[in-house]
Amino acid sequence: MRINYIICFLILTIFSTVNAQSKRQFIKVEVPVFEQKLNELIIEKLNSKKNNGCLKYKQNGNAEVKYCDNKSEDNYVEYDELGKIKNTEIIVINKFTYNEEFYILINPKESKTLTLYGFPLKIENSNKYLVYNNPSTDIPYSIQILEMKNGEMKKIDEILYPIDITIKKVLRVDKSEIFILDIKNQVWKTSINK
After folding, report:
1. What is the mean pLDDT of residues 36-59?
2. What pTM does this model have?
C-alpha cells in the first residue's frame, strides 16, 4: 500500500514539473541587457576528517548524517568536503560519481540538505544565487535559482532550457525574469517562478 502512495507521488511530481516547464516561454530579446556580475562563494575550510571513508555531521545537535565513499565499479561515489560558506553555517560537499558531479549544501542547524548540479554563484546586489548545470549527452541545460534567507539556502526555481538554446552565460536575474546569452550570441528571457 505504501509503495502505491510513493508511485502516485512520483507521478504527480513529474507531471507537475513537466507541466510547469511546458508553460514556460522563452522570448528572444532584441534590446541590450545590462549584465550583472556573478561572484564565487567564499568557502572557509573546516578541519573535518573522513572516518572509514565517511564524512559525518551532527544535525540539530542530535541526528548524524553520513556521506560515505564507495569505490566499487558498480556504485562509485566519492565525497569531498569543501568547507563552510563564509558568514553562514552551511557546509558544502562535492559529490563525484563516474559520470556526474554534484554539490550538497548542508544546513546542520535546520537539518536540511540541498543538492545542486553545480557550484552556486552569487548574483551581485542580491541575496540570490544561481547554478548552471554541465549537462551530459541527453540532459538539457538548466539553471537553478537559489535564495539565501535567514542563513538558509532555498531553491526558488529551476529552468530547463529547450534543446535549441545552449547557454553561454547568464546576463541578468531580476525579480521575475532571467536573461541569458546563448552560443549564437542571441539574448533570451524567461520568467522566474516563485
Report:
1. 90
2. 0.79
